[in-house]
What does this fold into?
Amino acid sequence: MELGTENAKRHTLAVLVDNRPGVLARVSALISGRGYNIDSLSVAETMDPDVSLITLITTGTPRIISQIIKQLRKLINVVKVTDLAEVDHVERQLVMVRVKAVEPNRAEIMRLAQIFRATIIDVSLKTYTLEITGGQEKIRAALALLAEFGVEEQVSTGLTAISKGTMAPKNPKTIT
It folds into this structure.
């Protein structure tokens, strides 16, 4: 472990930006250019077509995250930056996974899909393709069980997140 990284934790940053070409490249370059990793990245237009939301997951100490946020706020096309780690929020991810589905495993795969509220979106003679949405723990658990049948392919979106209610801080003393 690097010196001074004992307090590092995962942060979900919601970055509202102008919906313009090159903005995502500038945001990701700012973070990666300083040697920090982006663990997950998701971008979509908001209800306002001129604004996009970048949901970015990174890990760092409080000092590093504060530095990243300050640097992001200096970018011209950045409208607002929110550290969702400081507020109650919900995170979700979408995974599509193609699993070998031969008899007698087909019924068991369907039961697992039902347990995890997954949707079977494609069926062939030898495979099922499932769509699973949820938090990271749910996704990991479902994939671990499906791996027993043989995963042929897996794709995933980046994590997306939204604050709960009125974005009340988890600990009001931590927001400045």
